[in-house]
Amino acid sequence: MSKKIAVVVTDMFEDSEYTGPADAFKEAGHEVVNIEKEKGKTVKGKQGDAEVSIDLSIDDAKASDFDALLIPGGFSPDQLRDDERFVKFAKSFMDDKKPVFAICHGPQLLITSKTLEGRDATGYNSIKVDMEYAGAKYADKEVVVCQNQLVTSRTPDDIPAFNREALKLLSE
């Protein structure tokens, strides 16, 4: 069954952490909807390899319209967590126990939404302490799946494992 996946993304995202999962989701028949502050805008990855066209403004996005959330890493999550609209959007997915896929620095948005307490998770090494302060049980593993809902990974090298586990959750 096809799922509708929200992707919160802005400039300076980690290119492969968007393209790897988004391409895998689309290949599996899922719909990927890119969300940023401004609909129609094009955001660019920090490596200069990917450009993403924004489908929906955060002002028009409702978590209830989506089955899952993807948060690519890079500098994007740190910028997005400065905007309460994105924090509330991410929190809704966690609170409603919908699948959330966060890679590298992606968990920063979950730290700010205060939804990692007691959760098994991983992320880029530089945010390990932040995740622990937020109450996460940090594991230095390529992929961590928590409560059949939250999938986290550390770096672009972990994308194959990240995609495998995310697609498993989407098929349930």
Radius of gyration: 14 Å
CATH class: Alpha Beta
Strand content: 15-25%
Could you please say which CATH topology applies here?
Rossmann fold
**What percentage of residues falls in helices of 4 or more residues?**
25-40%
Helix-strand topology string: EHEEEEEHHEHEHEEEH
Describe this entry's structure for a reader.
- GO terms for molecular function: peptidase activity.
- Keywords: Hydrolase, Protease.
- Residues 3-168 form the DJ-1/PfpI domain.
- InterPro entries: C56_PfpI-like (IPR006286), Class_I_gatase-like (IPR029062), DJ-1/PfpI (IPR002818).
- This is Protease I.
- The chain is built from 6 helices and 11 strands.
- The mean pLDDT is 98.
- The radius of gyration is 14 Å and the shape is globular.
- The chain has one domain (4-170): Class I glutamine amidotransferase (GATase) domain (Rossmann fold, 3-Layer(aba) Sandwich), CATH 3.40.50.880.
- A 7-stranded mixed beta sheet has the order 5-2-1-6-7-11-10, with helices on both faces. It has a two-stranded antiparallel ribbon with strand order 3-4. Strands 8-9 form a two-stranded parallel ribbon.
- With 172 residues, it is of the alpha/beta class.
Short descriptors:
172 residues; 7-stranded mixed beta sheet; 6 helices; globular
Please outline what is shown here:
This protein is of the alpha/beta class. The protein has helices at residues 15-27, 76-80, 84-95, 107-112, 128-133, 159-170, and strands at 4-8, 31-36, 42-44, 51-53, 56-57, 68-71, 100-103, 120-121, 137-138, 143-146, 150-153. It has a single domain, classed as 3-Layer(aba) Sandwich (Rossmann fold).
